[in-house]
């Protein structure tokens, strides 16, 4: 979480660093503050719908009769894409974005192994995994849909003032990340949308394409 965001906290607000707390303590703070009539905010980085544990928090609150509202944010892949001027779903290359993470101590479902997901050849974004980038590259290449020449990018602290961008290929991105000494707080993006040799223009804005707001102009 960018500490500058905490400058917007209301004067007199009590702040707790969730990184130092377990789920029970976090919940107790939310519950007890609410029962005292206070506004309790569980401030997640990025967007709370991705890798955030909000489901377990919401369910526990509901059991205690406490309602809550989820406020959307900007997740790392969107911030990173903005910094890279990327269109993640580029016509003629891919219309699919796969968001996942590498497994280590926390497993992923069997069907979601990197080598399985990589068979689609889509744009892939890896959260919480830059320290495992060597493993990721090995699994991607094993699938056969990506080659050592496939573009790859790593964005450290996307949209922060100290943001770092590393662009390479699956053949050299591991070494580039190692040289930059990036081991956390970064997102990995893989796919030909990063450096497309060619792509197709969108049909939506083709004058000869009819859609719900415009009739095609067939004149030449």
Structure write-up:
The chain is α+β, with helices and mostly antiparallel strands and 220 residues long. It folds into two domains: 61 residues, no CATH class; 115 residues, Methyltransferase, Cobalt-precorrin-4 Transmethylase, Domain 2. It has six helices and five strands. The chain has a five-stranded mixed sheet with strand order 1-2-5-3-4, with helices on both faces. Strand 3 and strand 4 form a beta hairpin. The radius of gyration is 21 Å and the shape is globular. 20% of the residues are buried. The model has no long low-confidence stretch (mean pLDDT 94).
Q: What is the total number of structural domains?
A: 2
User: Do you know the CATH topology of the largest domain?
Assistant: Methyltransferase, Cobalt-precorrin-4 Transmethylase, Domain 2
Q: Give the number of DSSP strands.
A: 5
Question: Quick one: biggest sheet?
Answer: 5 strands, mixed
Structural category: alpha+beta
Strand percentage lies at 5-15%
Uncertain spans = none
- Strand arrangement within the widest β-sheet reads 1-2-5-3-4
- The helix tally amounts to 6
Mean pLDDT: 94
For the record, the CATH architecture of the largest domain stands as 2-Layer Sandwich
Give the end-to-end Cα distance, rounded to a whole number of Å. Answer: 54 Å
* Order of helix and strand elements from N to C terminus: HHHEHEHEEHE
What is the general shape? globular
**In which range does the helix fraction lie?**
25-40%
């Amino acid at each position: 979480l960018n500490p500058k965001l905490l400058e917007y906290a209301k004067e007199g607000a009590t702040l707790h660093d969730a990184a130092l707390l377990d789920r029970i303590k976090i919940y107790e703070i939310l519950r007890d503050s609410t029962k005292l009539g206070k506004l309790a905010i569980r401030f997640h980085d990025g967007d709370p719908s991705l890798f955030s544990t909000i489901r377990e928090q919401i369910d526990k609150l509901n059991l205690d009769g406490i309602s809550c509202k989820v406020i959307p944010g900007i997740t790392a892949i969107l911030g990173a894409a903005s910094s890279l001027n990327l269109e993640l779903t580029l016509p003629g290359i891919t219309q699919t974005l796969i968001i996942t993470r590498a497994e280590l101590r926390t497993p992923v479902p069997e069907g979601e192994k990197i080598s399985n997901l990589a068979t689609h050849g889509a744009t892939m974004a890896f959260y919480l995994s830059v320290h495992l980038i060597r493993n990721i590259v090995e699994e991607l290449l094993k699938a056969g849909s990506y080659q050592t020449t496939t573009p790859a990018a790593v964005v450290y602290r996307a949209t922060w003032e100290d943001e770092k961008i590393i662009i390479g290929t699956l053949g050299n991105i591991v070494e580039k990340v190692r040289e930059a000494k990036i081991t956390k707080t970064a997102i990995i993006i893989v796919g030909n949308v990063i450096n497309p040799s060619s792509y197709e223009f969108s049909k939506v804005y083709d004058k000869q394409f009819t859609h719900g707001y415009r009739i095609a102009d067939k004149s030449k």
